[in-house]
Design a protein that fits this description.
Order of helices and strands: HHHHHHHEHHEEEH
Strand content: 5-15%
Number of domains: 2
Structural class: alpha+beta
Shape: elongated
Number of strands: 4
Distance between the termini: 34 Å
Strand order of the largest sheet: 1-4-2-3
Helix content: 55-70%
Number of helices: 10
Length: 244
Amino acid sequence: MALNAVLIAAIFAAAAYLGRNPPAWLSSWKLSTEMINGGLWSGAVLVSLPLLIATFRKLQALGLLIAELRSARTGETSDAVQAIVARLVPFGGAVLLFLYVFLLGSALLPSAKVAAGLVVIMALIAWRLWRSFIRIYSKAQVALQATLAQPPGPRDAHPAPPVPALLREANLEMLTVGPGAEGRLIREVQLRTLTGASIVGIERVGSNIVNPGPDEELKHGDQVLILGTKAQLEAARGVFATKA
């Protein structure tokens, strides 16, 4: 989330620079300053949407994790209490994200009426293309991970660092979503609460989802990538086989 925030700030900084120092081709259009700033702000928001949506989904996952930890510490198992706690974090995070974007783009925002219209348009685009932006972010994340995972050349070769003990205990396994889990949200399955294992990826026809959020729906034919110890993976198999 911190990296996403830095990238969003860089995008708006570049837009603000263009607003103060418009290139010749942009100046040749003879547009008003308000139109140029409004277009640059809209472009910055549009480019930032995959990062903003990814950050919001991570906040949803964080809220779910905090709700589970709270239930584990206090012994409360009320679904209503868990739902309230799980929604407070993403709601508060969404407010902070809005203020963050507003502050970053304050130098470009046009008049109040135009700004309100642009906000509504960006909200509609985000709602309509939500899953497309998730796929864009997932593909970029996978590409970045693949780039970073490439071994260095012989000149820069170094002994591989020892694997932490925690990772030596972890295992990955692909499981097929059975009829009992089809159509359920990840948070409804409560895999981490019941087994300690976590869903870290979904392989779906036509797309792959890395680090899915708690509100991602499990569909027929999905292959889910589960992370956990051998005992946790064994328990996870039982959840997907019997969950009603």
